[in-house]
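HUMAN:
Just now I want nothing more than another pair of eyes on a protein record. I would be glad if you read both lines and explained how they fit together. I have put the entry right below:
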Amino acid sequence: DRFNRVNNRHERIDDQKNYQEFIQDHQKQTEVFAPTMAKRAKYLITNNGSIEDLYNEVDKVMQKIIKEQEK
């Protein structure tokens, strides 16, 4: 789940949160509007796995963009 993923990555100092802090952060305006923005996005990158998974997702989207530019 997202809480464990954020807490386990230790990328930033503010990554270490208790569950209550996590919930508060995810109730902020940007988090509330993220699903709405995702529906409007032409491309969506899922970031639910490893850094390698993220790079693979970015590569897939970039390939789609390149193919569209070639048309």
The two ends are 39 Å apart (CA to CA). Residues 48 and 59 are 16 Å apart (CA to CA). The chain has a mean pLDDT of 80.
